[in-house]
Amino acid sequence: MRKPVTEKTLAIRMSKMKHRSTRDVVEDLKKNGRLIEVDAPLSSKLEIPEIQRRVYARKGPAILFTNPAHSHFPMVSNLFGSLDQARFLFRHTLERVRRAIELKIDPNALLKNPLRYISAPSTAWAMLPKRVSSGSVLSNSCEITNLPQLISWPDDGGPFVTLPQVLSSPPTDADSSLPSLSACNLGMYRIQLSGNEYVANREIGLHYQLHRGIGIHHQQALKANKPFPVTITVGGTPAMTLAAVMPLPEDVGELTFAGALAGHRIPMIVSKASSRNAIPTAPIYADADFAITGIVDPNSLKPEGPFGDHLGYYALKHPFPWMQVTGVYHRPGAIWPFTVVGRPPQEDTTFGELIHEITGPIIPTVLPGVRGVHAVDVAGVHPLLLAIGSERYTPYLKPNRPQELLTQANAILGQGQMSLAKYLFIIDGNDPNAPSLYDLEAFFQWVWERIDLSNGLHFHTKTTIDTLDYSGEGWNQGSKLVIPISGPKRRELLSDIPSDLRISSDFSNPKLCSVGSIAIETKLPINAAIDQLSATMDHQPDLAKKIALVTLVDDSDFASRCFANWVWITFTRSNPSIDLRGVGERTEHKHWSCSGPLIIDARIKPHHAPALVECPEVTKKIDALAVQGGPLSRYL
């Protein structure tokens, strides 16, 4: 039987944690066999990013590039290369954070089991950031061009910071009191270091939307007609990186959460403006490896992008805020941590897994009746949400259509970044055989067996979608579809393509993507495709009953090669209100329905962004490294 962990033991463990810099993290991983070193002078333009993608895909360790070409600093990637490694980084504090969250969910738990929550008071103290007057990050100054210039994809608009900790403060007067740490926002927003119209070493791009936390400060600055200060830091404790992407309750600040996960109070350099007419600098994370300070004019935008994004396409060039740089700093022995963004899964997939592990238990307390939500990574996260809810309104009846599931779906779409979802499938968790949210094929089989095509499709039209999603009617503009599923099986599903399938010559290469779902190629416009498919189904009614969904694709071999391929193209290349149709479709009292099957047009359209493709020359060079017997050979 394991002995209980005492507060003294926890304190000793945390005292051994040395994650006050990226070098501390690197040494910890190296000591424990979780890091490989690459001494070859590889370029941060395309070469190093391709290595990162390959090593992550093969579940490899962290990678330290000790001698990157044209760089003043070593670079390290794959720090969060797996959920196991992420847990390892926070091995001394993760359990304490979990227990703190349990208390937030149920404060009475402390009275029920006081020994389990003995660490709660010290955890609360560790969560509080502390003001300091200086720090290692300010030891040296340099220029933006001295920082590693990471370019991940051939058509990226310039070098980007991919693991930035962006801290903003409200606009203040030069002679006001010191900035408040509680008023700060920490987020992870895309940072373009050069290119487009930015003045070299003086201006950098900030890609964020106004609904993000930093947008509150932007709105305040617009109202006051004043610039607001921003500090971008890179490195330090990994807790700051995770805190920057963490969806936290409004009453829990990012610096507070970072302190709990780091096991020490986060030191923040806070100072007044250097002169009466100057704008105070936003607080600076003292333990960071790098810091860029500056101010943002809320009334000015400049083109930012393109950039390979987490949907697997290029985010195109658009006007976004930018920052006037006032200082660039780095600590002694600084190491530049980075990641690569692209079609999932990538390293940010691990962020999502760890976030779910930490915050998953909170979901039912925030969304009554909702038992779980899964933002599907292989679909690019925002396009597709799966959820398990519960029908509770009339347990004594068996309603013929979803009731409370719709209420719960609306609550989900009203929560933070979940509001960006295009497709939300929510099933009734009261059924003891309901599938896991994380078994995608089983989940969709459950959906296709039970979907009610006459009552179960609910559209939100002319609304907002993710800025990075180009499937809609315009930038940020698109639609949403909620599909609640409850009740017994309605149909047996097709499990293979019949050899005697009769189909119009305008369609070709039908492939089974999953039971009840096929992909097929055609050049027909969507209306003509509907007519042809309707005729096909009319002549083969037994077949029509077994198919819930037909996906129109450009390449059905690719779509059916693996389930992740079908998920990716279907939900990133379609706009529900335009691209989802159905055989026998009709509208009654403004409610759309069909007799089935459903049809989703997931072909590439002229307004879509191009998909990410690696550079062939770089691919050949990295292939050659795999046969040289070096440290990367087993991962390439």
Characterization of this structure:
By secondary structure, this protein is of the alpha+beta class. Among the domains are: 285 residues, no CATH class; 126 residues, 3-Layer(aba) Sandwich (UbiD C-terminal domain-like). 28% of the residues lie in helices and 22% in strands. The protein is built from 20 helices and 32 strands. The strands form 8 sheets. Strands 5, 6, 7, 8, 9, 10, 11, 14 and 19 form a 9-stranded antiparallel β-sheet that branches. Helix 9 packs antiparallel against helix 10. The two termini are 43 Å apart. The N terminus is likely disordered.
Provide mean pLDDT, rounded. Answer: 88
Q: Provide the structure class.
A: alpha+beta
**Which spans have pLDDT < 50 for at least 5 consecutive residues?**
1-15
Percent of residues in helices: 25-40%
Count the helices. How many?
A: 20
Query: DSSP strand (E) fraction?
Result: 15-25%
Overall shape: globular
Task: Report the span from N to C terminus.
Answer: 43 Å
Radius of gyration: 26 Å
Give the number of DSSP strands. Answer: 32
What does the main sheet amount to?
Answer: 9 strands, antiparallel
Q: Which keywords apply here?
A:
five-stranded mixed beta sheet, nine-stranded antiparallel beta sheet, 32 strands, UbiD C-terminal domain-like, 28% helix
